[in-house]
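Hey, quick one: can you model this chain's 3D structure?
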Amino acid sequence: PQWIQDAVAHLRGISDLQAWNAVIDGWVELERALEFPDSKPPNRLPTADRPEEITIWMSNCNLNKCPVVKAKPFSAKWKKWYSGVQPESRATSTWPFERSTPPDNLNWGKLLRGGPAGFFLFILSLSWW
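Sure thing. Here's the predicted structure for all 129 residues.
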């Protein structure tokens, strides 16, 4: 879809670091696996604790008009939001989260959201700070 192409071009313009490009590649693979869903409610990330800067950006969805955020308060709000959508049995008391092989029974449902109001919002909002 065109919005994916536009988003990838924008995100790749943020940094040329290999790790950042790997994040973008992983996100595109997620979208592909989810068959490039739209932004209808079943595909949206939960809004509880979502930083207001993201909500404001979503009102116009203009990649060229991303908000200027204060890194420390925004990162605290972002971490709270991101932590809140993790599977309940995933340990989220430390940052960064433990990077071990997750058990097969984790329910990733809150995170498996594609489209413009899905996991993309995590990636885009990371680029703001």
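One thing worth noting: The first helix runs from residue 2 to 12.
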